[in-house]
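Obj: model holo form, ligand = zinc ion.
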Amino acid sequence: MGSFMSRRFFVYTVISISLGLLMLTAAAGCDLTSPDEIEDGNDSVSVIATVTFETTPTPTLSPTPTISPTPTPSPTPVPTYVEATLKTVKWYNGFVDPRSVRATVVTDPDDYAVLVNKYYTLTSEYVPYDLVDVPYSKNQKLRQIAADAYLELYDACMEATGQGLYLVSGYRSFSTQRALFTRAINNRGVKFAVKRNAYQGRSEHQLGLALDLCPAGQTVYTDDFGSTTVGQWVNENCHRYGFIRRYTADFINETGYDDEAWHYRYVGEELATYLHENNMSLEAYYGRCQILPDDE
Ligand SMILES: [Zn+2]
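Output (holo structure tokens):
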């Protein structure tokens, strides 16, 4: 009997445990189905909870980058001088070879009254910022202010003489000037070149403010421009429009160049009129006349 009771107890225990496990399994199954129901979307609260749970964490906003101050571009250092390429100073009949002198680099090349000659040079990089095409020219360019003044000069010349002008050469680049000077040295010799041709960097034509002129109808400039009706009128009246005749026989020793009847330079009306009325070269105005060998 004792063993029977024990067996009954055992069976009862087993059944109880089995039922318990069954209930636990059922309960577990019920829990497992819950997410499916939530995902049906019928329970808004649950959906919100689910959405909240599944939302990827808001990414931490990276801090707005501090705008670093625009770096001040360090200006390209402008050399103070262009050294001579010849070892000793060379003079030919009172004209110095520009290759034999150390030239000061001008610091204000955009100033339309700036002095550029054998002793005051532009850099190889300098190009005027406001070059424009010029009418009545051989496809030449000048700085805007000089081009405007040239048109006024042209109209006044036409009105006064019945003939216009022609701009043979205006702006010339550093490299063009180098080619011209080299060609002059090779073809005409150094004695001629140093009194008529500017070395690269030392030409007013690189300023876009110099004009080589001839009467309309011609296409080349000549020595006799100063004796023509048009040339005489320009010589006497150009200052009213801001131009000076730059190289004259009177100022050879000051400018370092021979007489050039065709070469004019824009400097502005005020300065041009002052130089005209005082019969003064641009070099003398700035107190920078060429130093002759005898003065050294
Ligand atoms: Zn010229």
